């Protein structure tokens, strides 16, 4: 797949909760090899849009495509099996399992059944888990229960779990939330390295504007569920509507 080929496309996505349009007619595109940002004030619909794109939520209208296939009615595990992984705003790790066990169980994102998950891991699966933990600088914690990790370490672990199925696109929901500045720089470096060496594409929800500006080629801005702006980080920083809505000026 070429660098310019589309991986993910959302067309006129609408999602209602009761009478409220949490996402209202949003168009979004992520191409192969891109790092794209998604920003907006609290309650602007960012996570709801993520949930729609990853098929955790049904949409009320619009269409969603991944690798050219219509996934509008696909189930989350089917989309994961196609190569789309994600993290969550509230960290989702198995706190009473070890770091390595968390990585191994995340192979279910390829759509494995519960029965197959309970079988011993294939040596190749464990090798990949150990390599990713080494890459994320978590290998020294491999036998530690996930609940004993710091918030930043759990964020890194969740990113590792999302990477286990070797996805083409990773949706990261506030990967720097609650993370100390040193680990934020590590997360940034990991994303950049995965993008450069493996061609991984990323769609990032972030409140850390510097993080977005340093990494992203393009940025989408939501406000009240609608697309407020779209452009380069520089364009977004200079957009008066964005400054008013997002930065509170």
UniProtKB/TrEMBL annotation:
Classification via InterPro entries: AAA+_ATPase (IPR003593), ABC_AA/LPS_Transport (IPR051120), ABC_transporter-like_ATP-bd (IPR003439), ABC_transporter-like_CS (IPR017871), BCA_ABC_TP_C (IPR032823), P-loop_NTPase (IPR027417)
Coiled-coil residues: none
Keywords: ATP-binding, Nucleotide-binding, Transport
GO CC terms: plasma membrane
Pfam families referenced in this protein's UniProt entry, alphabetically: ABC_tran, BCA_ABC_TP_C
Annotated GO MF terms: ATP binding; ATP hydrolysis activity
Matches recorded under PANTHER family: CONSERVED COMPONENT OF ABC TRANSPORTER FOR NATURAL AMINO ACIDS, CONSERVED COMPONENT OF ABC TRANSPORTER FOR NATURAL AMINO ACIDS-RELATED
Identification of the protein by name: ABC transporter domain-containing protein
Organism: Ardenticatena maritima
């Amino acid at each position: 797949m070429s660098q310019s080929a589309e991986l993910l496309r959302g067309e006129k996505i609408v999602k209602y909760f009761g009478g409220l349009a949490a996402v209202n007619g949003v168009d979004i595109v992520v191409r192969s090899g891109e790092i794209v940002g998604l920003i907006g004030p609290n309650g602007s619909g960012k996570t709801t849009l993520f949930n729609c794109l990853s098929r955790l939520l049904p949409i009320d209208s619009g269409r969603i495509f991944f690798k050219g296939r219509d996934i509008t009615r696909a189930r989350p595990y089917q989309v994961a099996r196609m190569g789309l992984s994600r993290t969550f705003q509230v960290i989702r790790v198995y706190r009473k399992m070890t770091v390595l066990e968390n990585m191994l169980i995340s192979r279910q994102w390829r759509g494995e059944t519960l029965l197959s998950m309970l079988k011993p891991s294939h040596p190749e699966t464990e090798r990949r888990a150990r390599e990713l933990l080494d890459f994320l600088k978590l290998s020294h914690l491999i036998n530690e229960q996930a609940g004993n990790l710091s918030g930043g370490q759990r964020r890194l672990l969740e990113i590792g779990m999302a990477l286990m199925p070797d996805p083409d696109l990773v949706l990261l929901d506030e990967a720097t939330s609650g993370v100390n500045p040193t680990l934020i720089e590590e997360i940034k470096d990991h994303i950049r390295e995965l993008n450069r060496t493996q061609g991984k594409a990323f769609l990032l929800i972030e409140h850390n504007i510097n993080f977005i500006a340093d990494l992203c080629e393009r940025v989408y801005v939501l406000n009240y569920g609608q697309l407020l702006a779209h452009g380069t980080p520089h364009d977004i920083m200079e957009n008066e509507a964005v400054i008013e809505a997002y930065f509170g000026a």
